[in-house]
Design goal:
With 143 residues, this protein is an alpha/beta fold. The protein has one domain (10-141): 3-Layer(aba) Sandwich (Rossmann fold), CATH 3.40.50. It has 5 helices and 5 strands; from the N terminus they run βαβαβαβαβα. β1 (14-18), α1 and β2 form a beta-alpha-beta unit.
Length: 143
């Protein structure tokens, strides 16, 4: 008999999703959870900063335009200052978003229209973060 595997035995990647639009936030949260991620949500930049300070996330996805036109960039900037260094990306449906994101050279812009593409990019970001952390730990261990 093949043993049954339980998802509770594994630690799910934690994602902080920041979006001011309740419908978008709920939709993306549902898609991410259905794909196996543990998702926390925030509706404002201030709420997101609080969650970043309280918990640890593998990935921070933030809408570009929250309570101000570039509040999402402030969320990502705060995320990058955290000791645990989460992967981060902007997620937006706005057509003019690339001009905003290009000003912040380390921001990855994800448009959510293509769900398989979105999930692929999210998996890649989390994998890249894990690789960076492993390399850093090996370097610190002198290996």
């Amino acid at each position: 008999m093949i043993p049954a595997f339980h998802i509770s035995q594994y630690e799910l990647a934690r994602v902080l999703l920041v979006d001011g639009d309740p419908a978008s936030r709920l939709t993306l949260k549902t898609v991410l959870e259905a794909s196996g991620y543990k998702v926390s949500v925030a509706a404002t930049a201030a709420e997101a900063v609080g969650k970043l300070d309280e918990g640890e996330y593998e990935l921070v996805l933030s809408d570009l335009q929250l309570e101000s036109p570039e509040a999402g960039l402030k969320v990502l900037g705060h995320a990058r200052m955290m000791d645990y260094k989460p992967a981060s990306a902007l997620i937006t449906a706005y057509q003019d978003a690339p001009s905003h994101a290009e000003r912040h050279q380390r921001s990855l812009l994800i448009k959510p229209e293509d769900i398989p593409g979105l999930l692929g990019k999210i998996a890649d970001l989390i994998a890249e973060r894990a690789t960076r952390r492993m390399r850093r730990e090996l370097r610190l261990a002198g290996v």
